[in-house]
Amino acid sequence: MARKSRKPGQAEDSAVKAAFAPTPAWIYARISNDSERAEDSIDNQVALCKDYIRSCSELTLNGVFTDLGYSGTNFERPGYSGMMASILCGDIKCVVVKDLSRLGRTYIEVGELLFDTFVQRGVRFVSVNDSYDSFADDAGRKKLLILFKNLVNHMYSRDLGKKIKSAHNVKKQRGEAAGVAPYGYRKNRKEKRLDVCPEEAEVVKRIFALRLQGESVMNISRILNRGGVPSPQNRRYNAGEAYNEMFAKRIVWTPGLVSRLLHSETYTGALVQGIYACNGKKKTRLPKELWIIHENKHEAIISKEQYKAVALLMEKSAEKYKHTNLQEHVENRYSGIITCSRCGKTVIRSESRVREPILYYYACPHCVSELKHERGIKRGAKMPLKKLDAIIMETLRKHMDALVHFDNLAEILAQSDPLKQKRALLKKESARLEKSVSDAERNISSAYAHHMSGLLDLREYGLVRAKVEREQGEVKARLTQIKSELAKYDAKNVMDNQWLVKYRDFRDCETPTKDMVQALVRRIVLTPLTNELEIKLNYMDSFEDLRKLLLESGADGI
Known about the structure:
Layout: H1 10-19, E1 23-31, H2 42-55, E2 59-68, H3 78-88, E3 94-97, H4 100-103, H5 107-120, E4 124-127, E5 132-133, H6 139-174, E6 185-188, E7 193-196, H7 198-212, H8 217-226, H9 232-238, H10 255-262, E8 271-273, E9 276-279, E10 282-285, E11 292-294, H11 304-319, E12 338-340, E13 348-352, E14 359-363, H12 365-375, E15 383-384, H13 385-401, H14 403-406, H15 409-415, H16 417-453, H17 458-487, H18 491-495, H19 498-505, H20 514-520, E16 521-526, E17 533-537, H21 540-552
Parallel strand pairs: 1-2, 1-3, 3-4, 12-16
Antiparallel strand pairs: 4-5, 6-7, 8-11, 9-10, 13-14, 14-15, 16-17
Helix pairs in contact: 8-10, 16-17
């Protein structure tokens, strides 16, 4: 055999370079607050990950995502969301973290991320301190260890939450301020009381004075924003009491924020706590008799007379929003599905009780308030429930109308000549591949017999076996693909298509129901002020499979 030249060709050289090109890696770092250990700071996490990437010839640093001031149990983090968006778009193929807890501290979400999302997207995950690399040969053996560490992180988070809640309850009973100090006050940790912040106290006095002068909470929020008064969130961030990076930017006063401040009895010198019962992220307001109230615990900013006068005004103002009939409350069928295109947060449903019947609408209050302030407009657009229902129903109706094209699909599959030919070819190919698999087994057995009889030495036997097993693996992969494709033409499998099943369940609905929306709609993205909607539906891949099958059959397409 002629000896081949060792000098590679241009195409071959390019292929080699491409094969050994380092993978772009992205670092993710997170910290809840600056009170965590110094070695867990964002800078130290990033430095550790950079050292690892530099030591690994297979990786090259491409960027960093960070989240400062976000709990590991909260997955609505800007850095994390940006990273996941890039992963889902296929732009990121390797993620490096200091340890598993930086990614998150909830067992189910992190487990799905590591062993479902990352695997499906072909993303390499590296946890430096855990010595885990999902592409390493020992990754399979370490999976159980990673699952255990994930569970430990989850239990640590839950245990820490219980301890903090218990400590806060003890403080409340003793008459100490637990949690965040109200706007207008600072915590005096030495004497365990609230001290007045003079600058903010003047703002509080001004708010109460404006309300007593007859200004609405809407007008008060506008006055504060026009005057450039920092909001409570800005105050906490600037004072070093909050570390969430989103609070670094200017956050406007909203009517809801002003209303909560006006309802706070804390400004009269009474320490009022235990107003809400918290279960995870859900907060339930308790009856006043269950509140923990300690009178005269700190210096008052407003008098009790002022507070009572404002409370009376707020009560009278609320009268016009009360209903005179027993109109049934409409269930929120879009709960958790609508998000804001500007901030990415879940859009909430509000209601207008000025007149009967109740009018429901959707809007992102924070973004609407900011945009109104930026653009100097008085009214922000809100998406009425009635209009949203009409748009969603029109979108779903178009797909439900397509059901008529699939009513006789089983009969079409049985009688279509193109599909008959396709099935016959696939069955023939499947039989050929199954024979190839059997032949490969026989060839391996034959090679082993030749080795035992001395016709093949151990090295020759190993080379023959490796070659046959490699070819057999390729054939099995192709056989699996063929059988999967053949299953698409099976009438029973087609009629069990998830799109067909789900849409058939709701084909007679005239208006959206909660079951329908939750089953068929994946996400709705609402643009503040313009009310533009982007609607993403479930089972669209299944729908495309049916549509392609109909086209292959030679029937009229949709």
